[in-house]
Specification:
The protein has 509 residues and is mainly α. The chain has helices at residues 13-28, 32-45, 66-71, 82-102, 107-122, 129-149, 159-202, 210-218, 222-241, 247-251, 254-266, 269-283, 292-297, 302-318, 332-337, 344-368, 377-388, 427-441, 471-477, 494-505; strands at 416-421, 448-453, 463-467, 482-486. The chain is globular. The protein starts with 12 loop residues before the first helix and ends with a helix.
Length: 509
């Protein structure tokens, strides 16, 4: 069995912020579909939505129509679906997800988290996304601790009685805490945060946020900023104003697109050759991490990213444009879907202008670069993954083959393979797709290959593929499975070994 040394534990403030950002993402990202649904319903059914363009009191678009009833305006003001979704559904989903995460993916933790979140919702005057991110995990974690006090101490036959009443009583207590403490606090915090944003907007200082956001993205601190601050504040603003520019501060693909275009024309060697594919993954797929190694390879290019970010924000400010709901992933498709009718010109121009600005600055910097070497893209990718704490499936396409972390053998049939990473979304789906194709091309269509978050793993799978830094965590969740660790998810020699393992142990179907 081939082995490598165990990576040193990463410490420091940046690592803690990254982990916190991952935690927030794991609460928000699984529920992005609900945010998109709310955004589309809002776009279609509010008073100035797509189905009521031009207004009027005709039979089916007037203030007494079914559109107004569903959207909650006109004769039906205060009702409809749009308001209840953002007030109740979205925060409760986040609270439930956070509670379930903190109780080791136990539904019991999710239920108590949702109850606690409901208290915060009732005690606040704004949508409780920040409150849900506090009360949901608190509910799941505290319920787990309480259950541990009487585990294996309940008399047979009384388990359901104790479990249901303990969850109900503790949920009630947390709902009161949410109503009295969390709701008012988050309302106060949201008001102060909105004052800061208003100050930046009124003084044309909002573009300066790119000075912090763009470097933060490359250092993988963007999840804490985007999911912890911009999405909750943006959703509150969108609920009252119909749209928010905050959704475009981090998710706009303009700056990254301009950078990769510059490498296509003025880059060298592997960086230039890989830039077109990276551009497609970034701009259409919405996986922004694909361009991070290009910046890490030549750190001065962060100036191009800041220029692109500032330009796109300035254009959106000038045209008073924004999105109705978060664009996730940060794909141009997701951005345009969430753009309200009156913002299309501004948003499209912001993408073009931001890309042009980053392209121009990056082109100058690349042309002025007199270094003979083309830059080590593979080394930059490794550096990026070291900072992130896991291998990026998308960006690993930029590097070479990857060292073997561990080999594995199996003696039983392999029917279920899980590709596991932190969030279980985005780039992990790409890795699962690569592995699935190799196995099915070998004639073993009976094998199911899926991607999941490590927190959602259960010990009912045959084989788990992870990055070497995550294998120990995955093994705790699935001790009976065969575990394969890789360094490079897009071109690892481990995949060929997995295919051979399947061929040796599975019967031909």
């Amino acid at each position: 069995m081939a082995t490598t040394s165990t990576p040193a534990a990463r410490t420091g403030a940046r690592v803690h912020v990254q982990r916190f950002g991952t935690f927030l993402s794991n609460m928000v990202l699984p529920n992005i579909g609900a945010f998109i649904a709310w955004g589309l319903i809002t776009a279609l059914f509010i008073e100035n939505g797509w189905l009521n363009l031009g207004g009027g009191d005709n039979a089916w678009l007037g203030s007494g129509s079914w559109v107004a009833e569903f959207g909650g305006w006109g004769d039906f003001a205060g009702g409809g679906v749009v308001g209840p979704m953002i007030t109740y559904l979205l925060p409760l989903l986040i609270g439930y997800t956070g509670g379930r995460m903190m109780y080791d993916n136990n539904i019991r933790g999710g239920v108590v988290g949702a109850i606690a979140t409901m208290g915060a919702i009732a005690g606040a005057g704004v949508p409780m996304f920040l409150g849900a991110m506090i009360m949901g995990p608190l509910g799941g974690w505290s319920m787990k601790k309480l259950d541990a006090l009487w585990t294996h101490k309940i008399r047979p036959g009384f388990e359901m009685l104790v479990n249901n009443f303990s969850a109900g009583i503790w949920g009630m207590i947390l709902a009161i805490v949410g109503f009295v403490v969390a709701g008012p606090f988050v309302t106060w915090f949201s008001a102060r945060a909105e004052e800061v944003i208003d100050f930046l907007v009124s003084n044309s200082l909002l573009p300066l946020t790119s000075v912090f956001i763009e470097p933060a993205k490359v250092l993988f601190l963007n999840n804490a900023i985007n999911q912890g601050i911009l999405t909750p504040l943006g959703t509150n603003e969108a609920a009252s104003e119909g749209q928010s520019i905050l959704f475009l501060l981090e998710a706009n693909p303009a700056a990254g697109a301009g950078l990769l275009l510059a490498f296509m024309f003025f880059g060298k060697g592997a960086a230039r050759a890989s830039a077109p594919g990276a551009l497609l993954i970034h701009f259409v797929g919405g996986i922004h991490e694909i361009y991070f190694p290009y910046v890490l390879m030549k750190p001065k290019l962060i100036l191009a990213m800041i220029a692109g970010g500032m330009t796109q924000i300035f254009i959106n400010l000038a045209f008073d444009s924004g999105l109705r709901a978060p664009a996730a992933p940060g794909s141009i498709i997701a951005v345009l879907i969430q753009t309200p009718g009156g913002s299309y010109i501004g948003v499209i121009l912001s993408v073009i202008g931001g890309a042009a600005a980053s392209f121009a600055v990056a082109a100058v910097l690349l042309k002025m670069d007199k270094a003979e070497d083309e830059g080590d893209l593979a080394a930059a990718t490794t550096s990026m993954e070291s900072m992130k704490g896991k291998t990026s499936i998308a960006s690993s396409a930029l590097g070479g083959g990857g060292a073997v972390a561990t080999a594995a053998t199996a003696t039983q049939e392999i029917r279920t393979i899980v590709f596991a990473c932190d969030a279980g979304m985005g780039s992990s789906a790409m890795g699962a797709s690569v592995l699935r194709k190799k196995i099915h091309d070998a004639g073993h269509t009976e094998v199911t290959v899926v991607n999941k978050a490590i927190s959602n793993l259960e010990d009912d799978v045959d084989l788990v593929v992870t990055h070497q830094d995550l294998t120990d965590r995955a093994r705790l969740k699935t001790p009976s499975a065969v575990h394969v660790s890789v360094d490079n998810f897009m071109g690892s020699p481990r995949y060929e070994e997995i295919v051979e393992m399947v061929q040796q142990n599975n019967r031909t179907t």
